[in-house]
Structure formats: structure tokens, C-alpha cells
Amino acid sequence: MKKLVLAASIALLTACAAPQQEQVNFMPKAVLSQSDIVNNASFTLTSKDVRSAQYVALVDSGRNHIEPVHARQNVRIALENTLAEQFNSQGFNITVNSENTLTVDVEQALVNVKHSIMENQMDAKVVIQLTAETPKGRLVKTYTGTAKRTAALSASVQDIQMVLNDVVNNVLKEIANDSELKNYMKERFHG
Q1: Domain boundaries in the chain?
Q2: What is the annotated signal peptide range for this record (predicted)?
């Protein structure tokens, strides 16, 4: 009986010890093409998260208190899946063993938040690098999205989430509409 009471007490204390920090719902949206731009073109899609830290926001509420906020989803996997959907809609086949590759590097995805009771200021920056490579060469493109927002009162996790997702979605639109990338892949990603 003592062991049971001890185990229950430890479980209860552990649950109470650390409040669960809120997380951002990271939901990038694919920009879907209405028609195929290629036929019978395939590539292997890989991705890397090269950010120095895994949080997606830093909240500075003054008084030397800066708190990181993480995403519920894995940022790299969410972006890779979204880009796969985006390129599939353009007619590309994503395979596991193509000699053509597209590498996605997540270089930055961060919202810096400074807030007080009266107002908040958010600076968001997302940097994604794509490397399209074939046996005959490679194309490296970097896409950057930024946003600044000032609003009354302190920033909520939902506010941070909205700004981050908006910036990521703008970068995805830029990738979808990049004619240099599309033409490079269209001309070289065959077989």
C-alpha cells in the first residue's frame, strides 16, 4: 500500500511541477496548380532542418524574461510534405531513387515577439533554400519571407501562429510561382 501511495504521489507531483508550455500549430498550405506543367518528370525529395534551435518563436516580455515557443509539428517534415503536395499538383512524381533531387533546407523559421501589457511587436522571418540537382548541374535558390506586425495588448500564441503561417505560406507561393525553378525542373527532371 505504501508503494502505491508513493507512486501516486510522485505521479501527481510530476504532473504539477512543470506547467505545459503552449505550442504553435504549424500548418503550411500547399499552393496547388490547376494543371500539370510537366509530364513524366520525377525527382527525389529530401529535406534538412539547419536552424540552430528548434523553437519557432522567442517571446520577450521584458524584465530579462525570454521564452521560446515550439511548434506542435516537426517543421522540416511539415514543409517537406507541403512541398511534395505542391510539386505533385504540377505533375512531378516524387520517387525514392531518382538521379534528380530536390533538397529543402529550412534555414530559419522564427517570430521574435516583444510585448508588454499594452502592445506587442512581432518580427517574423522564414528562409528556405531549395537545391535542384541533376547529373548535369544544379540550381540553388533561397526564398525569404518577412513580416512585421504591431498590435495592442500582449501577443497570444494564436497571434504568433497566424504570423508564422502567413509568412511560410507567402514563401510557398513564391516557390510555386518561381518560373526559373519551374523551367529548370521542367527541362532537366525527366525519367
Answers
A1: 22-188
A2: 1-17
